[in-house]
Amino acid sequence: MRGKTQEDRSLLELLDPVAEAAGYEIVRLRLMGGTQSRRLQVMAEDAHGEMNVDDCARLSRALSEVLDAADPISGDYLLEVSSPGIDRPLTRLKDFEAYEGLEARLELDRLADGRKRFKGELAGIEGDNVAINLEGEEETALVPFAWIIDAKLVLNDELMKRGAEQRQARLEHEQASSDADEE
């Protein structure tokens, strides 16, 4: 899920070590567009699940060096490095555990219970399965992670509140660090 096409997955093999060396993890990579103008979109975060503008610039420079040297993409393209955002894609098994209790949409590569799309509250993971509480269902559904082709958090009041709380905590931490540096 982190890479959709074989070309995306090849780029991930090249760029994952670069991102990790710089202190980041690639959440999702997509090479989009036709042959004329393409866009390489890289969503990443640090170990704390954060990615600010300075982080994006730092990772962009590191990735650009390797991309320029290896030249794995034919033609012109634009590199775009960003955070996953508040209604982020869920691409790694650990994402489903980290965002337990929040609402998400899942799309599968096959039918399960007569459908491919599910929406519900994430209930963590069990082995290689994603646990999700579906509306109107009494039992928690287990969906094999390998079947999921797309998953993302649903933008709602609960997610916005969590984002605001995280932003506030980050600002307080930065202020405390700044105050300590001045002393």
Account of the protein in words:
The structure is a single chain. The chain is α+β, with helices and mostly antiparallel strands and 183 residues long. The chain has 2 domains: 6-82, GMP Synthetase, Chain A, domain 3; 93-154, Roll (SH3 type barrels), CATH 2.30.30.180. Helices cover 36% and strands 34% of the residues. It has 4 helices and 8 strands. It has helices at 6-21, 53-70, 93-98, 157-182; strands at residues 24-32, 38-46, 77-82, 103-112, 115-126, 129-134, 141-144, 148-153. Strands 7-6-5-4-8 form a 5-stranded antiparallel sheet. Strands 1-2-3 form a 3-stranded mixed sheet, with helices on one face. Helix 1 (6-21) crosses helix 2.
Topology summary:
Layout (H helix, E strand, L loop, with lengths): L5 H16 L2 E9 L5 E9 L6 H18 L6 E6 L10 H6 L4 E10 L2 E12 L2 E6 L6 E4 L3 E6 L3 H26 L1
Helix pairs in contact: 1-2
The number of distinct helices, counting runs of at least 4 residues, comes to: 4
What is the CATH architecture term of the largest domain? 2-Layer Sandwich
Unreliable runs, pLDDT <50, ≥5 residues?
none
H/E element sequence:
HEEHEHEEEEEH
Mean pLDDT: 93
Q: Quick one: CATH superfamily of the largest domain?
A: RimP-like superfamily, N-terminal
Give me the CATH fold name of the largest domain.
GMP Synthetase, Chain A, domain 3
Question: Can I get a quick summary?
Answer:
This protein is of the alpha+beta class and 183 residues long.
Give me some keywords for this one.
SH3 type barrels; 2 domains; three-stranded mixed β-sheet; Ribosome_maturation_RimP; alpha+beta; 183 residues; GMP Synthetase, Chain A, domain 3
